[in-house]
């Protein structure tokens, strides 16, 4: 996965083609609580039939890959992400709506659910192709795998786990690869020869979550003006922003 975003000013100096002029990669984008609050605002605006306001200034519009998850009393309610880096404002908006209404594993979210929901945002960074299927660390890396089955060579199997998934379910590395193969839609028992063909891309993530009550308190405490809630805005588009996956 390429994290290059063209020429722009880096936070620690000028950046060209995704690399700072001093030769270092750009620092990863850190998730901030305003990203989570913006996701709540987007979904709440959807239910109210209005166009969401722009995000708070704390949410930069740099390009990043993002996953957004919704949880109802601790149970997954929907999670969809994009592995394609897109401007954060559009990416957060689109992923919040996709996870709420377009995750095929769940019915579309109902307005009445909002008070019970928690939103989780992962901003992905440091994508790197692993040397083999064990070249990653549980608790540090998330994984995307891809492979082909010789019986169906035209099909590419793909699946993704965020870093927190493996730790939450107490997986070993072998468990994670096996479960990802199942998640990708492969129904047979993976042979050693198939396992040896699995391509693993590892990545890291900055993760934050907050509940609906925290979101409402944020605005009650005088932050509503940071999103210009009385202004009119137009929606943008995120090129390639529909390369989605679910956790």
TrEMBL record:
InterPro entries: AMMECR1 (IPR023473), AMMECR1_dom_sf (IPR036071), AMMECR1_domain (IPR002733), AMMECR1_N (IPR027485). Residues 24-219 form the AMMECR1 domain. PANTHER family: AMME SYNDROME CANDIDATE GENE 1 PROTEIN (PTHR13016:SF0), AMMECR1 HOMOLOG (PTHR13016). This is AMMECR1 domain-containing protein. It comes from Eutreptiella gymnastica.
């Amino acid at each position: 996965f390429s994290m290059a975003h063209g020429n722009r000013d880096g936070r620690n100096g000028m950046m060209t083609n995704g690399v700072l002029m001093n030769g270092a990669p750009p620092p990863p984008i850190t998730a901030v609580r305003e990203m989570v609050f913006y996701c709540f605002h987007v979904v709440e605006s959807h239910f109210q039939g209005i166009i969401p306001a722009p995000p708070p200034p704390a949410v930069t519009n740099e390009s990043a890959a993002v996953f957004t998850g919704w949880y109802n009393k601790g149970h997954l309610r929907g999670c969809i992400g994009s592995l394609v880096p897109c401007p954060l404002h559009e990416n957060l908006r689109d992923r919040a709506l996709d996870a709420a209404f377009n995750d095929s594993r769940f019915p579309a979210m109902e307005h009445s659910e909002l008070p019970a929901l928690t939103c989780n945002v992962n901003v992905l960074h440091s994508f790197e192709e692993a040397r083999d299927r064990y070249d990653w660390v549980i608790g540090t890396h998330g994984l995307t795998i891809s492979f082909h089955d010789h019986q169906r060579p035209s099909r590419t199997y793909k699946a993704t786990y965020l870093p927190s998934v493996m730790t939450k379910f107490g997986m070993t590395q072998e468990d994670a690869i096996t479960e990802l193969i199942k998640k990708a839609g492969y129904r047979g028992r993976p042979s050693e020869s198939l396992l040896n063909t699995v391509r693993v891309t590892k990545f890291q993530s900055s993760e934050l979550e907050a509940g609906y009550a925290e979101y409402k308190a944020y605005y009650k405490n005088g932050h509503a003006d940071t999103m210009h809630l009385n202004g009119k805005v137009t929606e943008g588009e995120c090129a390639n922003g529909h390369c989605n996956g679910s956790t």
